[in-house]
Structure of Histidine ammonia-lyase:
Amino acid sequence: MDMHTVRVGSSGVTPGDVVAVARHGARVELTDEALEALRTARRFIEDLAAKPDPVYGVSTGFGALAVRHIGHDLRTQLQRNIVRSHAAGMGPRVEREVVRALMFLRLKTVASGHTGVRPEVAQSMADVLNAGITPVVHEYGSLGCSGDLAPLSHCALTLMGEGEAEGPDGEVRPARELLAEHGIAPVELREKEGLALLNGTDGMLGMLLMACDDLARLYTSADIAAALSLEALLGTDRVLAPELHAIRPHPGQAASAANMLKVLDGSGMTGHHQTGHDGQAAAPRVQDAYSVRCAPQVAGAGRDTLAHACVVAERELAAAVDNPVVLPDGRVESNGNFHGAPVAYVLDFLAVAVADLASIAERRTDRLLDKNRSHGLPPFLAHDPGVDSGLMIAQYTQAALVSELKRLAAPASADSIPSSAMQEDHVSMGWSAARKLRTAVDNLTRVIAVELYAAARALEIREGAGALPGGEAGRAVVRALREAGAEGPGEDRFLSPDLGTSEEFVRTGALLRAVEPVTGELV
């Protein structure tokens, strides 16, 4: 398989495939196996459509209107109308990568052979993705039950050549024009196809998979920042010993402690509890503060939460979510698999873990800036305290982000608003959980970036004083951060660009690339 092509078969796709298509523009190709599964399932639908018995989604209305039997002469209109009426989203546009994940995951389910969609409809879905055409999808419209209805409807609308979409050049134009430019004929939907294109957890799942990808990097980044803060605060690395974590065998905790130990290897700044930073006697400090000492426990709990969320995501990725669903023996059965609860719960769970990781990171930053708790560092890491304010307001920004994260940790999935005349009387709100998690992940990136920036400055100040040698990993981070454009200690200057540089340094994985040549691979 070409590394830039993802092949979609009836056996499904991987989380990496979803990220490749959504974020990196990988091409999509339907396998012969998928095309045969599509043809087989479609024959079952057409056989049912020819019979007089009503079948939900084939020859009936939808939701609370399912009591009406729809004759042959109105079925094309029925499928077209469900897309038009359900494309009722409002609010800001959703990010391109989310819409691409949404489309790709719906294609994955369609290609499973459990939806009854014709092969040519699936091929059109792949063609739209490969052309770089991105339907305009809005923030509000999904309750996370009966699928992400409005978002998926806007995608289906583009397949029909209606509504608006973004072209590969980023310009929003009528969908029909974009399809024509790329030689894609608008789809005329037949029995069940409109419903099949709308009825899945694809939006919330796509956002969960991308959050898992982001958080895997961010948890490692958080371990690095925590280690550098511990080093700059002259803390002890003895609390990171493997034998201490083995007696509380949470795998995430052990992984975070191991990462921190690797980052601190060779540092001369750690373990000075009984003496001052200049080697002189000082008041005994038997233990570091919780925010330093318990860093692996908090980050580790988040890692284990992430691992659970990834398991749920992989299970959902292996699913064929539709209603009704086509079974291998030809039966077409109604079901409730479209309910987003499994995905919604872990989206909310991750938001809690993200908020707490940010909270402990902010506490370490505050400690670095407080002359009464930083063990010899200048107030706010300022060049000339009083004349200079140093990083005082960087911590304010970090605190504002943490406060926002605490609000975002309130669960969306605990809410439910009945809809469709009480036919759909319990919903998951999984789309809402996913949307707030995306904001949370962005904010966590910024919180880690502020801690990293502060710890790097503190390490430079320590090294500049010449009393204690730092570790090579810390030096590597400082060098790379400065090469990226974030300036070191000195007189006050316009600070926002430096913090933005640090944020990009974390977001793009440059932090990991700076450290791992020294530490070896971190997990």
Remarks:
- The beta strands are 5-8, 27-30, 90-93, 134-135, 138-140, 164-166, 172-174, 325-326, 332-333.
- DSSP finds 19 helices and nine strands in the chain.
- The chain has two domains: 5-200, 207-413+426-519.
